Amino acid sequence: MEGDSNSMKVIYLAGRCFSTIGGIQSLNRQLLSLLGRSGNLERALVRFDLNENVPNTLQTQVVGFGGSARRFLWAGLQIFLGHGKGKLWLCDHLNYGPLAMLLSRGNYVVYTHAYELMLPVSPLKRFALRRAKKVICISDFCAALVQKLGVPAGRMVLLPHGQDFDSVSPSPSKAGVPRILFVGRLDRHYKGQDHLLEAAVLLKARGLKFDLRFSGGGDTLESFKDQAKGLGVADCVQFLGFVSDAQLKQEFADAAMFAMPSNGEGFGLVYLQAMANGLPCICADGDAAKEVVVNQETGLVVPYADPEKLADALQRLIESPDLRKQMGQAGEARYEAQFTEAAFEARFLGFLETV
Description:
This protein is of the alpha/beta class. It has 13 helices and 13 strands. The chain has a seven-stranded parallel β-sheet with strand order 3-2-1-4-5-6-7, sandwiched between helices. It is elongated and about 70 Å long. The longest helix has 18 residues, at 321-338. The chain has two domains: 10-163 and 341-352, 3-Layer(aba) Sandwich (Rossmann fold); 172-338, Glycogen Phosphorylase B (Rossmann fold, 3-Layer(aba) Sandwich). It has helices spanning 23-38, 69-81, 97-103, 123-131, 140-148, 193-205, 221-231, 245-254, 269-276, 289-292, 307-318, 321-338, 341-352; strands spanning 10-14, 41-46, 62-64, 88-91, 108-112, 134-137, 156-158, 179-183, 211-215, 237-241, 257-260, 281-284, 299-302.
């Protein structure tokens, strides 16, 4: 992709991009790479990253401020006073909406991710969201929250995520007891970890053989281990803690299914990674996951906080390798058709042409 000197120039405001992991950080890295390659990136101001975190290919366009609010604001003001006129200001988060509103002369776009909209939104941020030229929503679930804050539907743009994932070959253990994989921070209880443990109790009581594996850490890791012991399922539940990228790829390769019955996903990139690995997915019906996972086709959607229905869905997949294969193949096909990085880049560049 070659740069175009006549393309829309973007001033990118972000919190973190290269120094930490996470869904928004991953999106930021994607967008900065894309905007750099397409010739759209004028300058990116990243509040919490250090310049040493920035890849060499973006060193001339991306500036990190190491958490300094004063230097971050001063850099934005310099752009406003210099060459900011006529540029599109793109905020990776609602946190930077008020600043963009002040400096962009009204020509700004705010990315929304849903979780920040489920928290109290200050009057200033709400005003900035309403004044934005466009508000990007990563899912219909997210869009509904944006609309509740008073943003007209005509100024909302739906841009689902898309990302490429490397995969590895399954290990010999794949042919053994079916593995149920969960990936996510354990200190975020809305992700349904408790309900998975309660479902494990029911599955064990029904005489089913399975291996439930939790990949992810957090302050509550030890308490979840104690909970599994107290419930009598420690023999069929594994807590892996934080794992390396290489180990995580192997976990996806060796799993028989993916389950995260969450109630707070604005999108859920982890479901895409599962689908890219040919895994059927089980999710809950309270957030955007049901927009990614097609019920009865690429996986099963269950009521949130209903361990019995969750256990029924897990049992159905545990007992039917053919159904797992069928749903896994359908999920992989859906991922390849709609959620690759190339598909996302095409959607985003198409959006830029309309702003």
